[in-house]
Structure formats: C-alpha cells, structure tokens
Amino acid sequence: MTKFRLRYAPSPTGFLHIGNTRTALMNYLFAKHYNGDFIVRIEDTDLERNVEGAIESQFENLNWLGINADESFLKPGEEKYGKYMQSQKFGRYEELAEKLISIKKAYRCFCTTEELEKDYEDQVAKGIVATKYSGKCARLSESEIGSNLKSNKDFSIRFLVPETTLNIKDFIKGEITFDSKELGDFVILKTNKIATYNFAVVVDDFDMGISHVLRGEEHISNTPRQILIYQAFGWETPQFGHMSLIVDSTGKKLSKRSGNALFFIEQYKNQGYLPEAMFNYISLLGWSPIGEKELLTKQELISMFDDKRFSKSPSTFDMTKMKWINSQYMKALSEEEYLEFTKKYINTEMFNTKDKSEDWLNQVLLLFKKELEFADQINNHLNIFFNEVDVTSETIEILKTIEEHESVIKEFETQISTLNEWEIENIKSLIKLVSENTGKKGKHLFMPIRIASSSSEHGPSLADVIYLLGKDKVLVNIAKVK
C-alpha cells in the first residue's frame, strides 16, 4: 500500500488561526494513525501579501500545540520531494507550464489587463453570472504567436480546459460532479512568471508524493482545476476530502470578527490555555470519535482517528465548551504543574508578588485551581489579597437583604480581634462559634462574614480566604461595612 503522506500548506499572509489549525491537526492525526508522514509546506508565492513573522508564527504555534512536522523546509525529506517553500520552485513551475504548452495542454495568453476587464464587463452586461475567459488566445495561429513573442509582448500561460465531466469521489462529501465547461481556460503562470495557486499546489503535491488532500470545503471549487492538471500530466491523483466550515455562535464562518470566539492561536496561548486542551477541542470540530468520551489525549486521538467520521454539516466553535475543556485539563494538573503554569500569567504590574512569601503565594493560587477556565483568569481573583478593595454599592445592597447581618458581623469582629493563634482550623472553629452565639446558619451566617472579611460576596473556602488575607487586613475590611 502507498505510504500515507498528508500536508498542511499555509500561506504566510497571516498568523495561525482556528481554521488552519484544524486543517493541520486533522492532517496530522490522519497521517499518524496510518503511520504516515505529516508535511508542512509554505505557499509563499503571493509575495506582496506575505506578512513578516508569519512563517515563524506558524511553526512556533504548531509546535506549541504538539502538531510536529515530519518534513518541512526546517527538516527536509528526501531530495526527490523537492523544496518545501514555493518561492524556491519558480523554475520548476515554469518548466512544467512550458511542457504543457509543448503537448498542447496549455497556451500563451497575450491579452492585456484592459482587454480582460472589458471582456468581463461585456459578459456581466449580458447577464452572465459565471464569467470566464473567452479562449481568444487559444485560437491564435503559430505566426501570430511568433510575432507576439518577437515583439516581447507580455503573456501568461493558460491551461486548455478539455470538455469533460468530472466525477470526484470526496471521502467526506461523497461524489461531486463538475462540468468543465463552467471553468474556462484558467491561468497557471502569470505574466511575472509566478505560478498560480491551483498550478503550484498540484506540482507540489505530486513532487512530495501526497496521498490524501484534506482541507476546508472552501477549496472544493479548486478541485476540478487541480484534477484536470493531474490528468494533463498523466499523474496519479491523490484522494480528496473537504471538511465542513467552522462557524461562530451566529452561524457565520468563524473569523477574527466573530463575537466571543478568539480567532488566533496566539490569543489562546497568551490567555493561558493549555496546548493539550486546545489540541483536544479543535480535534472535535467537524469530527467525532466513537463513544461519548470528549477529553482525549493526543495518543488516544491518533489511535481513534477514523476518516469516515467527519461531519458533513458546519461545526460551531463553542467558546463555552473550549473553556470547559481547558478547565478540566487545568484541574488535572498536579499542584506543582498548576503553580508553575499559572505564575507565568500573574500581572506583576497590578500585583507585587516580590513582597510575598512563595508559600503564601502558592496557597493563594491553589485556592482557585478548581475555578480557573484559563490561567489569565487568576488576575480576576488576586486583588483582595494584594490591594485595598472598596466594597461596591451592589455588594452593600446584597448585604442589606440579609436580616440581622449587623449582629453577625459584630460577633465575627469580636472573635477575630481576640484570636491569638492565626491558623485555619482556629478560624473554622471561630466561624462555628459565631454561629452558636448568633443562632445564624447557612447564607445568613456565611454571607455577612464573607462580605465583611473580603469585601466580596463570592469566593473559595471562607476560612482559607480569611487566613490568607491576614488578621489586620480582615479587621480593616470589617470596618468598611460597619
């Protein structure tokens, strides 16, 4: 059986985002499941739109996620596979485009930009929706071609589309039929000698022995053109599969303008998401394993991968679920792993950790281990421990709804003031004593104590919070609500 070789081929016109991460990840799982190769190839022929740092960002974030390439320009494979950056293959594309001319499968097009625009406008004026090239230069005589070349007239190279019906067996979408009459003769080499996407990608996939092309459904319209090029050269065609769109909560294609969903992988990395959690969640976008289990390791996903379990329907990027999955991975961290990871995200401009002992800081951070959805959220919880916090008017109003809260706070202050040994167990006993002395339990006991001690109505273990705030700070906070 032919070795499975799959590729992810980003254009460095932008940075790694959810959509192309899903493409890379699925190609990676597909290749690894069948003990094949995963290749990263850079499609950088659109020189004017290439973004500085985009290539580095792609590799850095793919590696962070654990999507490691077997081959790339950083780690080339066998020489027969050629170069892994399209900008290093201009000569190869030109040579093959000329070969197609020699076997009458392509021709030189001398039409100017103005002529092409006029032709387009004439077709639109006639009500033609699917505009296409008229084929004018395909009918030029040899003498006309020779004359144009002699006068150094600029030309592109167009593929001569044969009249045929293409029945494509897409391993996700099923059979898709195209009539080549709808395509028109398309450009494969521009006047500047740079290959177009559809031509370069076919040459690259052939050179690299790609067995399966797995990509987003927005590429379906490119597939017939690419298959015609394969057929013109007599090359074996890879198997094609097109994954469904990823949409946002409104049903529109996920983009950087989508509402509550972050778009770029770097954004998640900067907010303190775990790469293992992201790998897990993105693997479930448009694909599902057998069974109900959703929290899956990379090795489990590789083992369970099945190319027959792709969904044909759009997949919704659910930020709430993404956060939930990440929170489960954070809970599963050991205390040491959690502390090492979370400390990287503390905003040290807001919270001066240098003046605090490491043991105290660790205890504060561990209070929120089961609450964080991502590491950067720790900054939402630290203010009461590091800074003076005023009680909000909303919190005061909540306090007023609790009957006889004044007596609970007064008794709590009395007991705190006389507590000599500042230990968690002693604080727990103190709260129990306040309950006995006031006759209050549940919300009527704990809410006044929490608001009085921490200036907030929410938080983790009350005794732990009081202990870590310290006696002096708790007494200062009590004075704010008396």
From TrEMBL:
GO terms for molecular function: ATP binding; glutamate-tRNA ligase activity; tRNA binding; zinc ion binding. A motif ('KMSKS' region) lies at residues 253-257. ATP binds at K256. It is found in: Cytoplasm. It is an enzyme of class 6 (ligase). It comes from the Bacteria. The keyword Transcription does not apply. Residues 4-324 form the Glutamyl/glutaminyl-tRNA synthetase class Ib catalytic domain. Keywords: Aminoacyl-tRNA synthetase, ATP-binding, Cytoplasm, Ligase, Nucleotide-binding, Protein biosynthesis. PANTHER family: GLUTAMATE--TRNA LIGASE, GLUTAMATE--TRNA LIGASE, MITOCHONDRIAL-RELATED. This is Glutamate--tRNA ligase. It comes from Mesoplasma florum. The gene is gltX.
